[in-house]
Task: structure prediction
Amino acid sequence: MPPLWQAGVVSSDAPPGATSPTPFDRARALRRMTDETFDVLVIGGGITGAGVALDAAARGLRTALVERHDFASGTSSASSKLVHGGIRYLQQGDVRLVYEALHERQRLLRNAPHLVQLLPFLIPLFGRDGVVGAGVARAYATALWLYDLTGGWRIGRWHRRVDREEVLAHFPTLRTDRLVAGFVYFDAQADDARLTLAVLRTAALDFGAAVANYAEVVSLRRDGDGMTTGATVRRCAPGESGEIQIRARVVVNATGVWSDDVRALDEGTHLRTTRPAKGVHVTVPASRLPADIAAVVPVAGDRRSIFIVPWPDGDDVYVGTTDTAWDGSLDEPACTPDDVAYLLGAINAVATVPLSSADVTGVWAGLRPLLAPPPSLSATQPATPASPPPPGGTRRPLASLARWRRQPGLSSEPGDRTADLSRRHRVLVSPSGVVTVTGGKLTTYRLMAEETVDVAVRRLGTLAPPGATHCPTRHLALHGAPPASARGKLAAPRKPTGTGPEPADAACTPDVHLDDTVRQALWARHGTETDAVLAPAIGHPELLQPIVPGLPYLRAEVLWAARHEMAVTVDDVLSRRTRATLRDSRAAAAAAGEVADLLAPIIGRPGGSLADDARAYAATVDEQLARAGLAPRAGVPEPSAIGTPEPDATGTPETTTPETTTPETGTFETGTPGTDATGVPETQQ
Ligand SMILES: Cc1cc2nc3c(=O)[nH]c(=O)nc-3n(C[C@H](O)[C@H](O)[C@H](O)COP(=O)(O)OP(=O)(O)OC[C@H]3O[C@@H](n4cnc5c(N)ncnc54)[C@H](O)[C@@H]3O)c2cc1C
Result:
């Protein structure tokens, strides 16, 4: 049998190191970037930059995008993966943000139904003697009605109150002593990194954008009048060196929490216009925390809440919380032992099966690029095109909302917490013409992109192609989306309230025999490209084996990632093309060598080897586990110290101690769930 890499589309005489001649090809993109002059150069390959590149390319602008690491390697792979309005932003009075986000949620469900799926959310209600505090019940009911009326209804379902039995059917290990009833409402979920990739591939494959990862902007080019005319870009894939010059009429800075760094390249001074806020998540097996829909659980004695979300295609769930201020390194937002203890403590306060750090299989931390209040940007000309105002106006709470916000214990007062900072975005133009877009949410990326490209088109003036003022992305299907006629079924809810297409619809590659669940999961990642992903497995059934035991990612997807998704490193494959690192990092590290073997014949690596890459990946996982205070991989010695306390020997006490603290929240009780009418905590991210 030939080696695996020879299966399918790579011919057996392909020289090692040959790159596949696909249009989503890094070497070709870099050549184009050297040769052509672009209308728009986007810096940053997170969801914001990806959205801008697609919007610009779809309007007919010659577009390039560079990302210094891998696509979505910043915040856009570390979010909570919710496509939502955010009920608590209503609580903060930001009706417009929720209205816009819910509108965008609906567009995403329509334009990328394979990637974005309906997600029912449960809010359990606790009380005394079978009765929920009147204030709490009214506050939640008001919030959910407002959410539905602000746009939640677009998803086709209204929230509803459910009885105790239904709550327990969804969340069987919930403590029953104070549980009275619950609410179910509807939002959506998407794999953030794959969504970002799908937007970029749509820009490149369908609209001709030149897109490259591992390409860092190190300086900006200027003309004699001091206007920005492009960028100097360092090629920084492993083993690579050298710079290229990219010529562009408009440069867009979409670098998230790093946007002030790029502004410093432009404006010579480091403004602090973003305020990074760290959020953490842990993954645990569903057998320890069974939940068939997502849930928002109040943290007793704290103004935050945690949420529990099932990974859509497996037997694991992740738990996360709202963010807290962060002033450490932007490149290393680690999940710490305190973070893990906070999340597990909050779960253990409401669940009958106690979780310990030994249950945690994956962790991740990300930095939200919040806008610093107040805007200190006098050197720039703000350019924020207006969107149509929502019903009820902008930031003026409805009367009923105002009443709801005055409920006892509601966090309506502006505070110093990052949770109180706006999730809005801002578009600015510097004196040299660089357009910066910051803030916002995964959910609102398209709207942010539309407003940013509107500004870019105005700057291009007569150089913009005819019709470029029209934004086509509102109704633009992303690459891999099925034709509209096939979509009704795809939006169906998950099991048992469900999410995906019927397996029979998912893909039908002849001669490739796959379990329905695996096929459905593949569809949710690749949509109409599923057959192409599976094609190399015809006659090579070993490519249908999971790359990480217990996770639904196939070896064939590693080949696809290298040939068609610009994966360059083992980490790219295990952390973002698949989400193995987030779900079971120890098992993913054990699979790193095999991933390297699959990649090696496809990816050339001057001056280095994929085996080194696999070792580096495993070392990163080990460091991540150590920093979170989690047990190391089998056979890996405990680190002496990586700047954090040692994990405790049993793995349990930090989750069951009666009190724990975090720097931002102070002390909270872990012993009792949301106790009485003193608090309706923020409801989610
Ligand atoms: C914990 C957490 C949970 C969240 N949950 C949700 C949620 O559930 N729903 C939701 O809607 N939103 C959520 N968000 C918000 C959302 O994730 C972010 O708003 C979004 O991902 C930001 O994307 P971005 O592209 O602006 O930034 P990033 O994804 O960080 O992208 C910026 C990119 O710029 C690159 N870059 C930097 N400097 C350079 C340079 N010099 N040259 C080239 N490239 C460069 C970086 O490498 C990076 O990849 C969450 C955020 C956090 C932190």
Remarks:
- The mean pLDDT is 82.
- The CA atoms of residues 505 and 520 lie 9 Å apart.
- The chain has 21 helices and 22 strands.
- The radius of gyration is 24 Å.
